[in-house]
TrEMBL record:
The gene is glnS. This is Glutamine--tRNA ligase. Keywords: Aminoacyl-tRNA synthetase, ATP-binding, Cytoplasm, Ligase, Nucleotide-binding, Protein biosynthesis. It comes from Spirosoma sordidisoli. It is an enzyme of class 6 (ligase). Gene3D superfamilies: HUPs (3.40.50.620), Ribosomal Protein L25, Chain P (2.40.240.10). L-glutamine binds at residues 65, 209. Residues 455-531 form the tRNA synthetases class I (E and Q) anti-codon binding domain.
Amino acid sequence: TDRGHLNFIEQIVEDDIASGKHRGRVHTRFPPEPNGYLHIGHAKSICLNFGLADKYGGKTNLRFDDTNPVTEDTEYVDSIKNDVRWLGFDWENELYASDYFEQLYQFAEALILKGLAYVDDSTSEEIAAQKGTPTEPGRLSIYRDRSVDENLDFFRRMRAGEYPDGAKVLRVKVDMASPNMQLRDPIIYRIKHAHHHRTGNTWCIYPMYDFAHGQSDSIEQITHSLCTLEFVPHRPLYDWFIEQLNIFPSRQYEFARLNLTYTVMSKRKLKKLVEEGHVTGWDDPRMPTIAGIRRRGYTPASIRDFCDRIGVARRDNLIDVGLLEFCIREELNKTTPRVMAVLDEKPLKLVITNYDEGREEIMRIENNPEDASSGERDVPFSRDVYIERDDFMEVPPKKFFRLFPGGMVRLKGAYIIKCDEVIKDETGEITELRCSYIPESRSGSDTSGINVKGTIHWVSVPHAVEAEVRLYDRLFSVENPAADERDFQELLNPTSLEVVRAFVEPALVDASRSGSLTNVQFMRKGYFILDADSTPERPVFNRTVTLKDAWAK
Ligand code: ATP
Ligand code: MG
Ligand code: MG
């Protein structure tokens, strides 16, 4: 049968179901370490794990891989749960590797009893030196032949807190000559007198990743344990523990990490960006974190769509961030109301001299030409309107379809106007345009017979609400900052944030106060979202993405 539509993991799952393995059961897990906020790379793993379970009638656990007390925190646990839910997924069980500490300890004793684990007093430097290099066998530790009784006694005393950090470790006896360095008697327990965010001071020895992860999978009877490619060399050890302990045979499968252009994706680097103040926090809209891109205005559906489109690869690759931007544009184009906002520190005031001062009309403007059901809104119009300074040129080049002296444009949803006079201050700066409007040209009932090439957006001066607009761009100016040796300072895009003043339609502010405003399109300017920094007096908008790919030019 043709299985070209399945990714390689789905093919494995379908084979397992067909062969009756685990009676067709599919149980995955998403195993974050709570030492930072989730990023878009994690979103890929979440979509994959939850997506597989959904597709094959299975279940997915959310398991916190919290075996390193020093770097972990409940703040991260809470943010992770929030982000997974926001992406649209619901877990079967909320579990913690730390809940298995006693069981893991018992597994370790079982290995000691089988003669497969020993307490080693070597320093970490000595252990590293014993391991040697992949091309030559390692050296055996002088502690490797301790008796079972001795090992059991020392291990119990490690647990009891008799030794300081680093004094002893528990290692497993696998193969010091293996070309796979992971198998050269890896450490499975170390002493760490540290407070754990869940177990407090109950433990002063903690299991290493390799001794916690696979066993946790097995305890939960996970059928397909999906992880990223750097764990390929860990797989033999994963299988070895399962075999030696004779426990449920979870299997590990590896896929390529998601890397995105113009950003970094490791929690360590993201944390550094936060700590060094290059961004305002984990949820800075320039961050590739779920919290950051949510605040930027991305939707859960756009991120799921992106994860679908990139698919599941077996080789590491670098995905163009333009694809992520494409996904959000596709969605917002269909769903967002259009509104008018003039984004300008010094917008240009246009005075319509033949329109009575104090007169006001309400224009009805469609919310979204892509969505007939989206209706219309009221937009007040008056004698004085703001336009973008860019929409006027005193000496226009050819094919300039916006406003110039003697030229005509349509004010979107309102009238055709003509520029009669340019007013300047003593420095020569244009302060005002004097215009006249064509009364018969009102949108929807235009009988003027005049055809104009350009339509520009505007905001009525007496009705305009001042807002702050944050124009975000790529955080880094190099395509692959993770592969660049230079310091952040040299790699960051100096113009990744530009803050401008804007004047917006009053309807937008009413919607924002009522809480009904989510994503909007500022006509001709891009997609925006209201930011949490807004106050009732001064809304703040974040630009999610421009209307077109400005970088493709
Ligand atoms: P980081 O290096 O960013 O800290 P991590 O792998 O240490 O990532 P974990 O919290 O351990 O972070 O990851 C939880 C799960 O998400 C793991 O299964 C991991 O393989 C997966 N994951 C992490 N980063 C990516 C990525 N860039 N692409 C796909 N999956 C990822
Ligand atoms: Mg990890
Ligand atoms: Mg990490």
